[in-house]
Amino acid sequence: MFYYGACYYPEHWTAAQVEKDIALMQKARFNVVRMGEFAWTKFEPEQGRYRFEWLDSAIKALHEAGISTVLCTPTCIPPQWVYAKHADVLQEKADGTVQHPGSRCHCCKNAPAYQMLSEGIVREMAKHYAKMEGVIGWQVDNEFGCHGTTRCFCDHCKKAFREWVRERYGSTDAVNEAWGTSFWGFDFHQWYEIPLPRTMPAGPNPGHWLDFLRFSSDSQVGFQKIQYDLLKDLCPGHFVTHNCMGCFPDIDYYRLSDYMDFPVWDNYPNQAGDPLYESYAHEITRSFKGHYWVMEERSGTTGDASAGLMGEQPEPGEIRRWAWQSSANGADGIVYFRWRACLTGAEQYWHGILDHDSKPRRRYREVRQTGKEFARLAAALEGTQVVPKVALIRSFDTLWSLERQPGAVGFSYDRHCFEMYRAVKRQGLSCDMVSMDARLDGYVTVLAPSLSLVDETVAASLAAFVRQGGTLVLTPQSGARTMSNAMWDLPRPGLLAEMVGATVEEVRPYHQGQTNEISFARGSLIAQVCAVGTWVELLECDTAEALAEYRDEAFKGKAAITRNEFGEGVVYYLGVYLSGHILESFLRDALPRPFVEGISEGLEITERTGENGRLVFVVNNTAERKSVTLPGEFEELLTGETVGPNLKVSGNGVVVVRA
Amino acid sequence: MFYYGACYYPEHWTAAQVEKDIALMQKARFNVVRMGEFAWTKFEPEQGRYRFEWLDSAIKALHEAGISTVLCTPTCIPPQWVYAKHADVLQEKADGTVQHPGSRCHCCKNAPAYQMLSEGIVREMAKHYAKMEGVIGWQVDNEFGCHGTTRCFCDHCKKAFREWVRERYGSTDAVNEAWGTSFWGFDFHQWYEIPLPRTMPAGPNPGHWLDFLRFSSDSQVGFQKIQYDLLKDLCPGHFVTHNCMGCFPDIDYYRLSDYMDFPVWDNYPNQAGDPLYESYAHEITRSFKGHYWVMEERSGTTGDASAGLMGEQPEPGEIRRWAWQSSANGADGIVYFRWRACLTGAEQYWHGILDHDSKPRRRYREVRQTGKEFARLAAALEGTQVVPKVALIRSFDTLWSLERQPGAVGFSYDRHCFEMYRAVKRQGLSCDMVSMDARLDGYVTVLAPSLSLVDETVAASLAAFVRQGGTLVLTPQSGARTMSNAMWDLPRPGLLAEMVGATVEEVRPYHQGQTNEISFARGSLIAQVCAVGTWVELLECDTAEALAEYRDEAFKGKAAITRNEFGEGVVYYLGVYLSGHILESFLRDALPRPFVEGISEGLEITERTGENGRLVFVVNNTAERKSVTLPGEFEELLTGETVGPNLKVSGNGVVVVRA
Amino acid sequence: MFYYGACYYPEHWTAAQVEKDIALMQKARFNVVRMGEFAWTKFEPEQGRYRFEWLDSAIKALHEAGISTVLCTPTCIPPQWVYAKHADVLQEKADGTVQHPGSRCHCCKNAPAYQMLSEGIVREMAKHYAKMEGVIGWQVDNEFGCHGTTRCFCDHCKKAFREWVRERYGSTDAVNEAWGTSFWGFDFHQWYEIPLPRTMPAGPNPGHWLDFLRFSSDSQVGFQKIQYDLLKDLCPGHFVTHNCMGCFPDIDYYRLSDYMDFPVWDNYPNQAGDPLYESYAHEITRSFKGHYWVMEERSGTTGDASAGLMGEQPEPGEIRRWAWQSSANGADGIVYFRWRACLTGAEQYWHGILDHDSKPRRRYREVRQTGKEFARLAAALEGTQVVPKVALIRSFDTLWSLERQPGAVGFSYDRHCFEMYRAVKRQGLSCDMVSMDARLDGYVTVLAPSLSLVDETVAASLAAFVRQGGTLVLTPQSGARTMSNAMWDLPRPGLLAEMVGATVEEVRPYHQGQTNEISFARGSLIAQVCAVGTWVELLECDTAEALAEYRDEAFKGKAAITRNEFGEGVVYYLGVYLSGHILESFLRDALPRPFVEGISEGLEITERTGENGRLVFVVNNTAERKSVTLPGEFEELLTGETVGPNLKVSGNGVVVVRA
């Protein structure tokens, strides 16, 4: 079933208004709303006194209108009575600054009082709603870690971190060994000596830091697990999820997803300047468990609560296009944020489908049209999903390591992963975004951009994939570090050197916008020259062949890019950061063939397949008309017409063909 | 009587030096000095032991030389013995950082010990100086809120804020309703639950925040009131004032002025790059009570105490011109800051009339010349004042709301008010700068730029003004919010919609420098086209006519500017932010006719009127010679010559004619 | 003896690796290593239990290989057991933020527990190593004040500061007088009232601030003294030093050097964009006591621990050139940082001679070649030293005063000193960098750039130097302040006015990039015109003659640069900041003649002289070939060939001739 609806807050409005709202929702073909994520103070105005009637009536009225409810646990914002009794639930920043109440996300997930009270309200809600008609599932809390709150430095966290470290390492000697505490005399002999990496004069120990980030992520995972277990136990018929934030870097969503039936995410397009960045986030989220929803889909201006700014209006056609782009990348539900802009509170400028005055305007009309379209295609979509032949390894461990120590000015691991992703996507190929420990069999090509942290298990997994005929693409900084964030005492790329068939003779960070030139000696880019910068590695080939070499006199004979046959497969190693068209061209040799080739910039083509066949989506992510050549004539499902081979797609247009 | 003098610090110098200083002051025709504002430690070196002799002798010597004294209460900087006994008088920032002693303004106005000790020293001074010859008035404290100290987050303030909220709302339910605490689950059931809006992960609740700003401003007002009441009681013959800071945004100076006989302000020109910005501040201050002084008029380099920078030297002629510009906008007293640069302390680089070595140089000579001129015109100025036909509503509530939530990147309420003011001023018209609750009868035109916070009272006041024949000019964001900083659940401009005769169909913040074009369909700008950005509102006319429309295909037919006849008057609504020449041209239709028309850029023309007639001031705010056509021949009062109709004004020149 | 080696960390590696390392060191002709500076936790893993065996074996193995050891006291980083017992050893920032353990330099030098424990470990080490073969000297701690830790605001420092002030002034009245506490009512009557200049609303009192900086510097000096006295007492045969940081501004290295046998510094070239900036730092360090080493010489990428960035690779030839540049400016020892990049810890990216994988690559080969060269020249270098005829006064008091209150935007005292230094150096002259209280006899020319703080002693010293025939060059802001950081109540340049023969009529800070023009009326620049900015002083000549005047109409007749004959000597006063070529040309008249004239940009020429004659070094600080004309033919010591008069020097090339 395809879910379509909005986030809704009956606690902000009168019963009369709710009635009017439901009528408008029905016209837009809504079948779901999400409710309750910040309403703890409404549910439990005094400790132990519970009030659910206000929500029950809304759920009932919606259900009667054919609209199901996804409930949220409201643990993100405890009621005010909590702080008077338990001031120690408030987070602390690295410098000791307390995160005070008044907004959200200020509580420490390791604070015992917060954990206890959270479990209490979730248990009561679960008991109350387990059998209520209309309720179909749960979102735990809301956007863990939002506003930089994943990492807390309070005393509860200090104790919890020591426990976490003890559990991971067993002895302080093992900690000393893993973190390499010999450097800057940081040895531990007692567990109680282990500090949090708080404000300090210079940078922290990388092993200490990475483990603190893992611990901070695990603290969120642990909080999710408590609620997940409770909800699955008390509400066996309901699904449980959490709304992730796309490329949000602070939480290992692969681990978090262990305690969800499927993940959802909150999609606010046009924030990174490239529509494929949203696809990147869609595919990241889908890859956690193979299915997902968009739980907050933009339907108006955003409204930055900190800066007090109203974002731009969606242009006509964009709301519909974003929804279809979501579906095209695998979303099985689309829930707009929010039904109507709130009159009060920090997000006054965050518009929903309706403005403050409730008058339905062009955004509502577009949502209604889209609702009708999804209703028409619901059967066709049923059972289909995106199933890529390409995977990209995006490792949270590496992200955390390189975000702290990027090496070169301007290097961003996430941006580099996106550049690589984009080059795949531009070929018309979807891409699973997998963790280091993912199973790789079934993929034709695996990209592992700047996979810095590598141990024997990862190296063996990659080697096995290649030996069995896979194609692997590696880029600079690969294999430099152990899982403890130490440097390997091996020539780069460390444990990957054998499959690469080459080693790094010298790494050269370029900080002043300095660049170098490489020329391609083989492959489809032969004789081309391109400038490279940021970070350059001089390679020495062993069994590999050089595909590109440096033109600089000083580096004569050093390879920049190599290709090595290994087992039945091939390993490419890029000692330089390519991007844009040159990267797209370069990768073509390493990738499988897509359904459509030569896709012009701005068009996005994806496939959802299932037992009932294959749907191909053509989404025009621009405001201009675009054309594309399909491999034949096909039935277009939104219009029922036959299209192709020459297809014109209007600005913000969407075409869905059965192929 | 026109007052002319300087801020003076006898506590910094020897008696012999004071004697020499007074002789130089007399030559410059001084008749007033201001003294004592940071000298608490001199007055009360130990708790309860008072020492006034050092100042008495200076007052006496000055008085004998014909120079009166304005005394300051020294409460801005308590003596060092205070902190050892009462560490809790120190302010706290939002993140908990304590404001330590060593500079100034570090005490919390809600700290009981600070209040008690302040009252003590003021009482002793008032008793001591009530009848002393030469003393004519008092400045309470100094520049409340300077260096960002209006808002304190200490525990005393937390308690005081809770009291303030309780007094305002009566019940926590009323608070919940006003602030809209349903958003982000922020309900209160006990007074002790109400927090200060301290450091928190995301932005604060706008109602909570606005009330905290009101409370912070009221805390200053309350501190002023205590001293005002005491001084008026003990020194019935003295005036009482406080030195405001022009456009300083943190304190509601309208309310503060309730506890002054007249306000004064501190004028440091050339800090905003436009000489009319000083006029803007002059008119703001004058409008508090109709009369004012400049209590600190720049006479040398400034000297940034935090950055350790020396400001630029006044160019030859500028000190005189600033003094005359002050008078031309209504100042009845001009007190230079400061007599001489201090040898020590944080403002070593803040030069006065004299340099550190006391040698009179060109700045002294210019002050002396200006003193003679004011002496010559004293009789003519007597009883005159600036009496504008135009008023501009500049609301502290709206300022505080929009400074926190400007909506669009780069929008500044104060800057917009100044743009509007400037367009009036450029026509040769002065302008009262009034609060929302001002009486509007008597004005021909009222401008209410971006008057976001509007309730029934304000709407009724504006409607009455228009109905009786007034012209009202409104600009974007008008009427969007309630007085509680909630959004109205009405189409914008909310309660003003009827008089505007149009509503806003869509607001469009433009963040990326994006612009749009409008074309004028009627009025004096007909057929002109201009680019608009920052924030654009698409208007739907009801009874209004469209003066300008959007040219963009997508907004075809949407109005950008409207004009509506309402009662006997007219309401203009600008859905776009105009500025510069186009704004000046547009407003011409809405404004009364000035004494002189077609004033070239850089000239400023004002009038002071009284029972004895009318003085017209022509001030050349540039270094280049300018010319202007007067409506006839007039007597020039500085030279005694007849001038006009063609008048040339030298660079930095000043002309005063009797008209 | 010329020392050559590297910083080495046997605690990071296995014994087997140490053995291999020593073999490679021998091939590079090493005769010294530095060890132990962060190893307190290895030396004293539990309080009072000492472990030295791990280091003893390394010292022994090195000694047997002909490599001596400089030991460091490890007080920079106490073991973790310290914090559990003594949390009060941690530094506090001005806003109260605690500096937590996890990196380095976080302890307060005034904390009694830290002082006691530091003395304990140093005493044990000194006793243990006093007679051990191979150990030749000690470095106390490491880079005092690194990462902004010179200044601590904890309660221990508050008490120590009060003691320091009491010792300096004797009475609070004297403090009030010196600091000028009358300004902003800051008088003290009890010692316990004196605060630290912590976070406050506006800038601090300059006298208070300067004394706090002096105190902070003295706190480092006192810490050095304790260890120096202890080591000299227990290890009479060893030298004692500390590794300074070149132009590091926070510690008065002149005073610190009182407790060293000779200073050393840590040289990381190419951080200021001008190779002469390293020479500047070399000459600063040499001038402390006449001799010095480089204790950390760059041999690889740097690795910013805070930003997580890897610096640029030394280009081929640079490591060798930097070493020779060090020697050419007087270094008697060169110790590379570090032997090998560490696998763990915050400086993972800080490469040494070897990479993480220990494979000797081009950097090792260059170090080995350079080692052979130094071995060849060791005898010739023996007993020689740089002995300049020019001195530049670089005052820490003035630096501290002007860093807090630079007066003009963009003015930097250190940068100005460097500009002046550079203009001397570009003539082929070396320059001693001396303190205000240095003996000046023996110098031909003394430059005292922006010597703001001047008392009678300094003025008398400069006057005596000039009277006896010396040439003195002064620049803007000279003589403006007392030693207490008050302004003099005299016309600028205050006590220097008589010898200058002119006074300053007006100072003009230029903040907006505004400039002015001067034209030269006399001297070698006659008739030239040049633009001046930042800060301009209008001069009135008394006995001096004007060398340059302002061209601006408004300043007609005001001098910009003057020359005054005073006694047997000459005083130049520059009322403007000259730089680059114009400054070089201007200074030529004021400087002695060098060995070689007309040196092209990028070449550096220095001399070391001794009983055995004179060595002239020609270092090419660029990658391009350069030529220079020597005054005849000379023996080149690296090649043994005869060179000159026309000499070509290859890129990064070094030539050493006996002259």
Tell me about this structure:
Three copies of one chain form a homotrimer. The first copy, chain A, is α/β, with parallel strands linked by helices. The first copy, chain A, has three domains: 3-105 and 112-145 and 238-381, TIM Barrel (Alpha-Beta Barrel); 390-588, Class I glutamine amidotransferase (GATase) domain (Rossmann fold, 3-Layer(aba) Sandwich), CATH 3.40.50.880; 603-658, Golgi alpha-mannosidase II (Immunoglobulin-like, Sandwich), CATH 2.60.40. Chain A is 31% helix and 22% strand. In chain A, strands 5-4-3-2-1-11-8-7-6 form a nine-stranded parallel beta sheet. Chain A has a nine-stranded mixed beta sheet with strand order 13-12-14-15-22-21-20-17-18, with helices on both faces. In chain A, α8 runs antiparallel to α13 (396-404) and α11 packs parallel to α12. The radius of gyration of chain A is 26 Å and the shape is globular. The two termini of chain A are 21 Å apart. Chains A and B meet through α2, α4 and β10 of A and α8 and β16 of B.
